[in-house]
Design goal:
Shape: globular
Number of domains: 2
Structural class: alpha/beta
Distance between the termini: 13 Å
CATH topology of the largest domain: TIM Barrel
Number of helices: 14
Oligomer: single chain
Number of strands: 11
Bound molecules: ligand TUI
Strand order of the largest sheet: 1-9-8-6-5-4-3-2
Radius of gyration: 18 Å
Largest sheet: 8 strands, parallel
Strand content: 5-15%
């Protein structure tokens, strides 16, 4: 039990990352049913898609779940409104500052938990009313910051008084215990849930994660200020080659338009973008969400010298 489990009313202090294209109601409902916080990731979708997903998730579970708003989405203002109207229990945000939506969400009674990649934004989020923050290290998949989880989490913990959730590089009980030692009161995991039974992604995506090794991910777009971590493949190789040769961001954008969809929906191993974190090397089997979560906390509790409560 931590301030996070108390605040949200969940059994285990674990959030499932709101991964674009990957995290629809299937995995969100499964994680929430298992006692964690499932999260529907809106990614680049619109408000109508989200309304439908919320409805389906509510049909599948009566446990709390959340929605992730990716702030680079051009329809972010409309989506933010739907989140308030639907009175979703928890909202997490990524890839920017959700400051302008905070008052509306708080008025609707929503628990607001922004993802941050640095201390300054964590402080600002606390100031404008965030209930907790997710400190996401550069080990994570997708759009990332510079600091590692190991360095970021304790610095954020020291800078704010609201609960801190650690993300980036966590896929088992050792990672959970380590995060708690750094002062976190919960964890957020993405990669491990890309390879679970209930997640609605192409089998090739799951296989890419399962087969990945410690050194299988690459970060594209760093020189443009848009770093994205993914599993190395023909597309990431080509992107990095062109990036290193000095091609402009605009010229390169065409290469990756729709590539996340190609990976998740079509399982296109050559031209898809398989976003995943560095911990993919530790993920070696496909398991039900419930097994992933329960084994993680059983191991963490043992490591921390505690017995799991009945
Ligand atoms: O948002 C993420 N991860 C994502 S979003 C995404 S969708 C996408 N698709 C194609 C290309 C690029 C993205 C895939 N993965 N994680 C949360 C996160 N937020 N990581 C880093 C940040 C962040 C960075 C800067 C949050 C705030 C921030 O500050 C901006 C500011 O305004 O101060």
């Amino acid at each position: 039990m931590t301030r996070i489990t108390d605040l949200i009313g969940i059994k285990y202090p674990i959030f499932q990352g709101g991964m674009a294209w990957v995290a629809d109601w299937h995995i969100a409902a499964a994680v929430s049913e298992a006692g964690g916080l499932g999260i529907i990731g809106v990614g680049g979708a619109d408000e109508n898609w989200l309304r439908d997903q919320i409805k389906k998730c509510r049909e599948a579970t009566d446990k709390p779940f959340g929605v992730n708003l990716m702030l680079m989405n051009p329809r972010a203002p409309e989506i933010a409104k739907v989140i308030a109207e639907e009175k979703v229990k928890v909202v997490t945000t990524g890839a920017g500052s959700p400051e302008k939506y905070m008052a509306m969400w708080k008025k609707a009674g929503i628990i607001v938990v922004p993802v941050i990649a640095g201390v300054a934004l964590a402080k600002r989020m606390q100031q404008c009313g965030a209930d907790a923050v997710i400190a996401e290290g550069t080990e994570s998949g997708g759009h990332i910051g510079e600091a590692t989880t190991m360095t970021l989490v304790p610095q954020v913990v020291d800078a704010v008084s609201i609960p801190v959730i650690a993300a980036g590089g966590i896929a088992d009980g050792r990672g959970v215990a380590a995060a708690f030692m750094l002062g976190a009161e919960g964890v957020q995991c993405g990669t491990v849930f890309c390879a679970c039974d209930e997640v609605n992604v192409h089998q090739n995506y799951k296989d890419m994660v399962i087969k990945a090794k410690d050194n299988s991910t690459r970060v594209t777009g760093r020189s443009y200020g848009h770093p994205v971590r993914q599993i190395r493949n023909a597309l990431s190789n080509k992107y990095l080659e062109m990036e290193q040769s000095g091609v402009t961001f605009e010229e390169l954008e065409g290469l990756t338009v729709g590539s996340l969809r190609k990976a998740v929906v079509e399982g296109d191993t050559k031209e898809g973008t398989f976003m995943a974190g560095q911990i993919a090397g530790l993920v070696n089997e496909i398991r039900p969400a419930k097994v992933i979560i329960e084994s993680m906390f059983e191991q963490a509790d043992k490591l921390m010298g505690r017995k799991l409560e009945a």
